[in-house]
Design brief:
OB fold (Dihydrolipoamide Acetyltransferase, E2P), 378 residues, conserved putative lor/sdh protein from methanococcus maripaludis s2 fold, alpha+beta
Length: 378
């Protein structure tokens, strides 16, 4: 009996040892990490192209010329020959002030001049007769001098009357107001029947010239040396981009640089001129201004989303041919049209990760998900 009990105890001990060994093996296997799945990413290519070197500013659109139209003579406004907001050409009739008072004044001046001319003609003829009689000794020199002075005085009065006629004609012409420039009319500030005054403080109308048109903006004075250097090489193109979706940029030329830096703001004022044939730009509008100073030829660029910033500086993840990710430090330059210039660290044609970098580590496998298909790079 004791022998059986002893064998049973040994068997139980053996089972316990075997069980502990299996458990230890299981624990060892559980400590080995499973392989990490590929990281879903989107990729892009590093390309080579010309990149413009630009300066950016906020500008204000200004009419090339602005005219506040005022009456030069007073009277009742009889006619308005245009519609508010209409384009007008130089010389187009705009307003008519009642011309009758000026027509009456012109006829009066003409009558006065005719009367004066008749008196002057009579006096000059009388002076000639006295001159002939004086040669025969039939009248005195004093009488002749008086007649000549009278004729001269009447002729001078006739000249003044002719000037009065010209003035009356001028006043009459001012009763018809025409556009002094070509442009676009604004709000009508006087209406038919209104009594207008000469040179009133309030204009009848404001006209803006919008073709061509200017954009005024400022740049920091530190940019002045680069700007002047670029201007020495030729005229500078300037793009104006209006606010709003779908607005097309307008391209013009830099035409004005102020002759002094504003000491209060440390900026210098500039203007660019645009043909504005499509009326993209409008007076008073705010626009983004881009001045192109030069072009970097054959620059390496990548999508801006590819560049990341870490403790060691900027870097990108490069997709290797074996489907793994390489963390590559890079030196960046200008930004243009959603792309960044890579000055150092990358070559055209290399593939970079543009989405999914947060889950990436060096040498991680990539699951490329560009477009509708998904591909695990191997």
């Amino acid at each position: 009996m004791r022998t059986i009990m002893r064998h049973c105890g040994r068997l139980l001990l053996l089972l316990l040892v075997l069980s502990g060994g299996l458990t230890a093996c299981s624990d060892e296997k559980s400590k080995t990490p499973p392989p990490r799945p590929p990281v879903p990413v989107k990729i892009g290519k590093a390309t080579s192209r010309g990149v413009p070197v630009t300066l950016r500013a906020v500008g204000t659109v200004e009419a090339r010329a602005t005219v506040e139209l005022r009456a030069r003579v007073g009277g009742q406004l009889m006619q308005v020959h245009f519609q508010e907001g209409e384009d007008v050409r130089k010389g187009t009739p705009l307003f008519t002030i009642d011309p009758q008072p000026f027509q009456v004044a012109l006829r009066r001046a003409e009558a006065q001049a005719g009367q004066q001319q008749a008196l002057a003609t009579t006096a000059r003829e009388k002076e000639r007769r006295y001159a002939a009689l004086g040669k025969e000794g039939l009248n005195s020199q004093q009488d002749y001098d008086l007649l000549r002075a009278e004729a001269d005085s009447l002729e001078a009065a006739g000249a003044a009357d002719r000037a009065a006629i010209e003035d009356a004609r001028l006043q009459l012409s001012w009763s018809r107001i025409a556009a002094p420039i070509s442009g676009r009319t604004g709000s009508l500030l006087a209406h038919v029947g209104d009594q207008v005054r000469a040179n009133d403080t309030q204009p009848l109308l404001v006209i803006h010239q919008v073709e061509p048109i200017d954009v005024s903006f400022t740049l920091p004075e530190r940019e002045l040396p680069r700007l002047r250097q670029a201007m020495a090489a030729g005229s500078l193109p300037v793009q104006a981009l209006p606010e709003g979706a779908g607005a097309a940029p307008e391209t013009g030329r830099l035409t004005f640089v102020d002759n002094a830096v504003d000491t209060a703001t440390g900026t210098i004022r500039l203007k660019a001129t645009y043909t504005n044939a499509a009326r993209t730009l409008w007076p008073g509008q705010f626009v983004t201004v881009l001045i192109t100073l030069a072009t970097l030829e054959n620059a390496t660029v990548v999508p801006a989303a590819a560049v990341q910033t870490g403790q060691q500086g900027t870097y990108v993840f490069v997709a290797r041919e074996d489907g793994s990710a390489e963390l590559r430090p890079v030196e960046t330059g200008l930004t243009d049209a959603g792309e960044i210039v890579i000055v150092k660290g990358l070559k055209p044609g290399e593939t970079v990760v543009i989405d999914g970098q947060l889950r990436l580590t060096p040498d991680a496998k990539l699951d490329i998900k560009n477009g509708k298909t998904s591909e695990v790079a191997r």
